[in-house]
Each structure stands twice: as structure tokens, then as C-alpha cells.
């Protein structure tokens, strides 16, 4: 449809874009500009392709189907809960890494950020081994409290938090390191305890960084697939989030998969674009 | 190029988009080298090159054995497999994935490929597979029938209805008039079985062959309703096969007495 016209346009941006925008050319060296624009196209063209190939005629029916709404609702709820979990335990963890000098801090920091590079499926397997009904911690949860996390919505939240929390920790730790510790010291000289100083001085100071990290973590949680399907399984309404619904729809109904992908894309862009300017720059 | 033109008529292909185009290109290039590398394509014993077989996840063990057998019978050949859910394999093939042979776990998934005009000739049923209940070793839940799975508190996983093992399980449940709410619909039969092997689920409805392949990690329970849910496994040569002779020879091996012995040893039924 419009795809053929898109491709030459992407080329024109890199080739003809230079001479046309003289002002840019004087400022940015061509050996940097060309790869940068190719990089931009590489990241954006697949997303444009998704929009181009969207079955617009059947889109309203796809989006109003109860299954889609159910999956989207579950995705939004679980991503928000996972962000909440990350905030409650991730911010103190970031504080510990940034403000307390303890032996092996470098190693701890590496371990904390490991889920960033770990394939999410591996994360899911690891969670099963730890928190599954037969896992090293999970078997006691099951025996003592009758709690089994796999195949439950709580399992989805845990899988998403596992994958998303490092984004928050990194962001908050970075902000903490940039924040001037003298404010906290001043609070301490005025008699505040370390926790009061954290609560009353540090927390407001690093709020933009926390918000930025929370947004990143939320967006990552929303897109989580591998750990979720491995640890929490796939059951509509309980553990089937949007990414899982997209994957399974692709097996039988690619049009539905594209429509679902578009929804996920739109929600992610809306959140990232809407919040980026307000908080990320400040952070 | 005519392939591409034909493809665009189908919504399925449209979905796969640019990736498919890349795959088609790579398929063309690899098939070109394969055919040119072949000195003589007539007569047996002169096979060479690579055969790419897309096969249902449930065929993994037996086809891996047959692949090794094939490579031994025809030195210079190499059989590569892509095992997965039949539906996703079919989608890959219609999307232009470079495959020579497709063995699917149900006629309906094979139909996706034949409808797209990607199969060469008519698919042939080479085995049938029956369902079984996989439970934990020793069957601690004393599961003896399909109805036992519907009891409250049982954690049962089924295959997603989109994949053949899930469709078959649904047929068996419908035939028995039972309502079963699983804890999860897994994306393929191996994923369902794994959840039992890891003791996360109490039971899964999977193929008899998968129970057998899992050895003593699970215990199989037969149930009479499985007779209503026997799956035929068709195999077909694909139209874009880069190595037609070797692909045909592999299909012949699967259908031969020798191949059938391997398959029935894995628990498959004769067609």
C-alpha cells in the first residue's frame, strides 16, 4: 500500500537530506549523520511497517473484542503492579548501592542489573526453579502457606518485576550519585536520622529520577513476554498479557496479532512520549 | 518474483512482511548453490547437500533418530530440523522460510501450507498419535481418567487450542462432555509436558509419544476418549525445496518399514 513509497523516502532522508538541510550539514559531519540516520530508519521502519500493514478495516472489531480488552487490562494492571513492587524494593536497593560502601558492591551491582542482559526465558526458568511449586523457595511457600505462584496473576507480576526492576534501580542509582550528598549531611547536622534525611531530603531530590526509572520499568514490564510465558503460563484473563496474546494470535490469525501489536505500540509510545519530556530530562 | 506476487494475495503472507522477503531471498540463494553443487541428481546413493525438515515438536525424538540414520545411509548429506508448534511452522513456511520437508501434527495445519500452494504433491499420512494424560511419577494424585482432571484443585495444563495437541485435547473433552479449566494453555506440547516434569502442574494432556520420550520423569495414563482425538500426521515435500531428491529420499525413509519401526518405537500408531 504505502510501503513502496516509504522505502524511497527513508533513502531520501539519508541521501538527499544532507544537501537540502545545509544548516545541519555544517554542524554535523556526514560520516556521523549518515549512520545516525540509517540507525534511526532501522529502528523506526519496522514500526512504520506495522502501522502500514495494520488491517484498518477490521481494527475496530479486533480492538473491541473482549479477549483483547481482557489481555490489555491484565497487561496494564500487571505492569503497574510490577512497577509498584520495583519501587518499593528497588529504590532502597538503589540507595544502598549509591550511598553505602560495602565490600563486593561492584559485584552486587552487576548481579542487580543481570536481568537486563539475561534472556527473559532464562529469567522465567530461574523464577520457576526458585519460586515454582517445586522450587527452592516455592516449595516452602506451598507447604507452609499454600501459595503457588506459577499460573497466577501474581506470577505475572513477579516475572515482570524481575525483568523490569533493574531499569528502575539503574535510573535511581544514577540520580542518587548525581545528587549532592551535602544536603543529607546538612539534615544530619540538624539532627535528622539517616532514614528521616532519606525520606525528607533525598527522596524529593531524586523524585524525577525515580519517575523516569518507574516509567522505563513500566514500559519494560508491559512488553515482557519470555519470563511471563515460562513462569506464569498462558491463561486468558489470568496470565495472558498482551505480548502472549500477540504471540499466540500470530499462530492462527496474523491480522489479530498485528492489531494487538499496534495497541501495545500505541500505549507504549503514548506513555514514553508523554512522560519523557516531563521527567526524563529533569532526571 | 512470481512467488512474491502470488503471496501478496494472502493476508497471512502480508503479515509476515519484510522478514518473509528476506527469507525468500535466502531460500533462493541457498537452493541455487545446492542444485549447482549436485553433480548428478539421478539415481540413489548420489545424494548430497542439506535437507531442511520442519517438523512438529512431538516428532523431535524419532525424527532426530531418522535424520542421523539418513546421514549415515547417504554420506555427504546433512539433515537439519526445525521443531516447533505445527501452526508456527506452517506460518513460517507460507511466509517463505527455506524448508524442504514439512511434517505436521494435524491435517489442518498441513492444509495451511497446501492451500498456500507451498506443497509439492499431496501430503501423505505417515503416523497417527494418540493422547495420554501425563502425571507426576507414581501418579500421586491417583488420576485414572479424563474426568479426574476436572476435580477442583487439580493443576492441569493443556496445549493452546490453536496447536494440534490442544485441538485434539478439546475434541476428547467434547466427546466425553467434560468441562476442564486448565491453569494454562501452553504454546506447544513440549511446553505442556515440561510443566509436569518440573512438577509445577499435576497433569497435562499430551501425546502418548511425548510421555514415552520423557521417560520416567512423568507417568502416562491412558483414557478411552483419546480414541476420539487421534491425530493424523501428514508429511509433504515442499515446492521450494532446494534439494528435492534428498528431501524425497528422507520422506521415503520416514514411510519405509525402517522408519515406521523407529516411529512406532516412539509410541506412534501406524496410519
Automatic annotation (TrEMBL), chain A:
Similarity section: Belongs to the binding-protein-dependent transport system permease family. CysTW subfamily.
Entry's localization field: Cell membrane
Record keyword Transport present: yes
NCBIfam families per UniProt: Mo_ABC_porter, modB_ABC
Domain ABC transmembrane type-1 span(s) in chain numbering: 72-273
Protein name per Swiss-Prot or TrEMBL: Molybdenum transport system permease
SUPFAM superfamilies named in the record: MetI-like
Primary residence: membrane
One Gene Ontology CC term in the entry: plasma membrane
Residue spans crossing the bilayer: 30-52, 72-98, 110-131, 143-172, 201-219, 256-275
UniProt KW keywords: Cell membrane, Membrane, Molybdenum, Transmembrane, Transmembrane helix, Transport
Biased composition annotated in UniProt, kind: Basic and acidic residues: 1-10
Automatic annotation (TrEMBL), chain B:
Signal peptide: 1-32
Any single biological process term in GO: molybdate ion transport
Stored Pfam families: SBP_bac_11 (PF13531)
Keyword terms of this UniProt record: Metal-binding, Molybdenum, Signal
Highest taxon listed in the record's lineage: Bacteria
Molecular functions per Gene Ontology: metal ion binding; molybdate ion binding
Binding-site positions, molybdate: 58, 86, 189, 207
PANTHER family in UniProt: MOLYBDATE-BINDING PERIPLASMIC PROTEIN (PTHR30632), SULFATE-BINDING PROTEIN (PTHR30632:SF0)
Similarity comment text for this entry: Belongs to the bacterial solute-binding protein ModA family.
NCBIfam families registered for this protein in UniProt: modA (TIGR01256)
Protein name stated in the entry: Molybdate transport system substrate-binding protein
Organism: Streptomyces luteogriseus
Taxon lineage: Bacteria, Bacillati, Actinomycetota, Actinomycetes, Kitasatosporales
